[in-house]
Amino acid sequence: MESYKEKYEEYRQLLKDMLSKKRYTHSLNVAEQCVRLARRYNADEERAYLAGLLHDIKKEETPQAMKSLAVLSDMDISEEELITPALWHAPAGAYYIRTKLGINDEELLSAVRYHTACKPDMSPIEKILYISDITSDDRSYKDVDKYRKECMEDIDECVYDSLKYLIEETIGKHSVIAPCTLRAYNFYTILHNERKKSK
Ligand SMILES: [Fe+2]
Ligand SMILES: [Fe+2]
What is the pTM of this model? Predict the structure, then answer.
């Protein structure tokens, strides 16, 4: 496999052209956090960095363009996702990365596709991207420091806690919950309960 490192500069330039300064900085921060987590959990640092760098590449498209790309991606997009605009940029990004950047790394593409909606039984890069996106240096919500600490200690527990929060928040907003999010919540809740029992 060609080294992803050789492509970093080219992709950073592309992102600079495609995104606002704020989102470009967020992308760099997520990529850095992906590397920290990859080091901590012995995952591939270069792939983790690239997933972080590119994860929001389609976030500043028009809603219509994002939705069309999400549909074109053919990445198992549920009806619930199709009525939730906040989720479109993730599969849209994965589709763009595959078709325009020629990256066919399935784990990386899946990590980008699920970085907002989440999924059960995530691979290391999927989990690392999901958590890096909510713990990057530019995030400033109430519990961010708790999650930053927790993700370095026990990433599965951090996924569980963040999913609980995400589901509660989504219900609070009267929004629908995508099936993959619910299945993720069930998966990490069962894992959490089993681990608690065996302690
Ligand atoms: Fe995103
Ligand atoms: Fe993001």
Answer: 0.96
